[in-house]
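Problem 12. The chain below contains 537 residues. Write out its predicted structure in token notation.
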Amino acid sequence: MMRVLGSSQVPGISRVLVAVAATGLIGGSIITAQAAATPGAAFGACPDSSVTEGRGVQCAVISVPMNYAEPDGARIELTVSRIAATAQRRGVIVANPGGPGADALDYWARRIDSLPAELNEHYDRVAVQPRGLRWATPLRCVTQAVETSKSADGEQVSLGGGNRDDIKKACDAALPGYLDTITTESTARDLDQVRAALGVDRISYLGTSYGTYLGAVYASLFPNRVDRMVLDSNVDPDWVWTEEFAQQQVAGKQRLDDLFAWIAEHDGEYRLGDTALQVYQNWVRLVADQGGGWYANLTPPPASVADLPGALPEPLAEIARDGFNGSVEQAGKVQNLVRLMLTGGASAQVPLVGATAVATYTRTFWPTFARAMADANIDPKNVRQLLAIEGATSTDPTGRFVFSAITCNENAVRGRLELIGSAFATIASGGNAMDARADLVRSGTACGSWKPVTKPVPINGKDLRTRPLLLQSRHDALTTYEGGPAMARAIGGSLITVEGGDHGAFGRGNTVVDEAVLTYLRTGQVTIDHADQAPLH
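Solution.
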């Protein structure tokens, strides 16, 4: 799940889109209906740098309708990767890693060594690059060049917090009508087009984070095309999307407390404090020293605090002086600030904040993070490892564009502008920065005047022949625990609660969880409802 704090998920995605046309496998433009691809998928080489080499990955390009309401209209192209089963094949399993806006092509190849061998042996493992991303007719929304130059293109416009009419005009200049089709429903329909091209009646599915929601939408639209379905770290279907991202802030605070407590337990190695409170205090000091301002404001574990270091950023200082008046100019300033916060632009300038967000993903990051923080504690200039951690989950710039398009096109939760004042009050009083961020998310300013163009697909699993299996970590910082039970109720699935807070429980060396998934894939049966967290080596 691409956290509203940014991808990785404070580190933002900020570079301008680069056109990709590798080995002729990806088109940057639509094709006409007359040029539609013939049925079937012809697998061969993959686009340059799109997949890990030496893993047996092959790719194919599939032509699909750009707008499913106009099936005979313009078409787009998706790249699909496949690693064939090495032994007797039981079926095809399609994976999506989340986002929205995460690359999918290399999903299986990067995980061959960590996923159970049984998957490699008995399943064709397929990943479909979601529409709008590189290698899948990239979404391009560029302004006109101001002056004549070598390039006729201007800069990619920001898709969040702006005027929808201006955004749509910029997007339609490249591919008319494409922006409105970047939705979860369209992406799910793309999956079924790929299924048909693969020549199989049913597919199994593995989705993580946003991939759980995509899978649930697919199952609701095409229940007779689903064999087995594993949903790992679930989106709450009632929170799409504003509340989902607001809840991340609350869950993130809990996971930070867990992280600080673990570092304190290993004080002999890291020397950052022998209690969670001492580690927290060191963290606050280092963030403030790096220029984190009010990002350093967190309530400490387990007590609260009144005044913490941190300068109040504009335009919140302006609101403090003059109040929130709702003017176009002031709203624009607030939108710019919120966008900067939620995409990670501001926090990315502070290495410790960015690295901390990544560390909340999974405990496998904790020893490396603690060592990097300890190094910075000894030498404040030594942030090399913090920067490396911060960039560990970065993705291509197209991910940001798709993220904004999907979440704004189908957001079903009304924004509440009055919460901007609440966020300001929290920050001004030295309160928890994550509470302030939650209120800013709930204000709805991240999408600005961009109104939804569609309603989310109602989730319903009543026609599935096999109940889905759901995995949910109790302290997941990206998809909060409530998402697991909520999705299980909506889709009629069987939930396994996993202790700890790893985002993505399958394939992390947790033998109990992995065996439960394999048993389910073989038999359709779920034999447990609880598992401990993965061991930390």
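Discussion. DSSP finds 18 helices and eleven strands in the chain. Students who got a different answer should revisit the alignment rule from Section 12.3.
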